[in-house]
Amino acid sequence: MTFLTRRDFPTWQDRMNRIFRESFSPERPDEALTTSNFAPPVDVYEDEHHISLKIEVPGIDERDINVSIENNTLTVRGERRFEKDEKEENFHRVERMYGSFTRSFTLPNTVDPEQVSAHYEKGVLKIGLAKKAEAKPKLIKVNVEKTLEAKSPGKVA
């Protein structure tokens, strides 16, 4: 019996997407590869001060990436353009995805939309979202008053 792991799903999904693209573009299946939409993989993680996203977008110029926040929704748009230097008929295989993408994420109310940063390096777009000051956890010290009962010298407890 074969079990699918989380690591197997992107490969399986890529294969299914390719089958559908080729099925619906019978005249030129390679043309569908150069104009398709795709969704780059994203890691989202959180600590007590920030929510961070890492989006894999190799081969995309930073000028072709747009990050915006509107109504508690973070939207990342971009486009990977097909290099026209090579002739399409010379390709034996085209596995990289080309075209535009849009990824949207609903943000919790704890995010401060005025405190957002975006940094692009080595094909990874890193977005940092600071949490509002009132949303950060606060440690409150609990004071306990101890009352001491005075013991009388002649009493036995």
Q: What does this entry look like structurally?
A:
- This protein has 157 residues and is an alpha+beta fold.
- It folds into 2 domains: 1-36; 38-134, Sandwich (Immunoglobulin-like).
- Helices cover 15% and strands 34% of the residues.
- The longest helix has 16 residues, at 8-23.
- It is elongated.
- The N and C termini lie far apart (72 Å).
- Mean pLDDT is 78; it is low at 25-35.
* Count of separate DSSP helical elements: 2
Tally the structural domains. Answer: 2
Number of strands: 7
Reported by name, the CATH topology of the largest domain is: Immunoglobulin-like
Ends apart, CA distance between termini: 72 Å
Radius of gyration, CA atoms, in whole angstroms? 27 Å
Order of helices and strands: HHEEEEEEE
Mean pLDDT: 78
- % residues in beta strands: 25-35%
Structural class: alpha+beta
Helix content: 10-25%
Q: State the assembly state of the protein chains.
A: single chain
Annotated CATH architecture of the largest domain? Sandwich
Biggest sheet architecture:
4 strands, antiparallel
Features:
elongated, 15% helix, three-stranded antiparallel β-sheet, 2 domains, 157 residues, 7 strands, Immunoglobulin-like, alpha+beta, single chain
